[in-house]
Amino acid sequence: MKKTKHRAGFVAILGRPNAGKSTLLNALLGTKLAAVAAKPQTTRTQIQGVLTLPQAQIVFLDTPGIHKSDTLLNRRMMESVRAAAEAPDVALYVIDALAPFTKEDQEAVDLARKIQAPVIAVINKIDWLEKKPRVLEVIEHYRALHDFAAYVPISARKGEGLEVLQQEIIQRLPVGPAEYPDDYLTDQPERFLAAEMVREKVLHHTQQEVPHAVAVVIETWQDTPQLLRIAATIYVERPGQKAILIGAGGSALKKIGTLARQELERVFDRKVFLQTFVKVRAGWRQDPEFLTAVDWRAALS
Which of 51, 201, 229, 236 has a CA positioned 20 to 30 A from the CA of residue 267? Predict the structure, then answer.
């Protein structure tokens, strides 16, 4: 019996905001690494997740949605997208099957055309479609725009089509050994993951004006065998946003903190004591010193 050759490589996940890229990453890995919310620009940095299988190791690079770079924060986010697209072994272009084609979609297609590696068109959210022929319409539309390596309909939310997608990826990876140990999951430090979990709950439970103006900084981290103590500061740009986050009598902040703590306990598999604070820092999205200070990569140097 012929032995299957082991394959390994890097796979960039690209697409417009809200296409479901982070949901797809979490579903493929079977665990939660990336924040997920029904708001654009949930992902702000390039997140690396590693899936190790008997026949292959896939290093996924989740990226922010392709969008207009109108602030320093957004420009840094787009730099992250371009970096991920420079030299992957395979790229996934995630398409929202429900959404009309927009300028952001065209920009994503233009980026896909520049990638030298095979690009797989992943048609997401098919579980929401009332008429299944719509999937074929989406495929034909994108087939006319670019010669994608494959077209795979999926539901990242329900896990539909992921095995097919996985096989489409693996067969296009180069033959080679694993880059990381079998138990390696992500390059993200625990502090970054904790900040993402808190920010996700803010995105889920605040009004539309707040999400893009939110940054979460983990101020203290005390880990003991019995308890993980975390203090997180949520930064916003205006006093009105702070009032929304805190809520009447602190009710909104309490709810956000409770949900974040429950998520952290699930992810880290231990009891968590979480303190949350809200501070105003006007214009932080245009402040290079602040953006560098809150960047998780800076904490590793």
Answer: 236
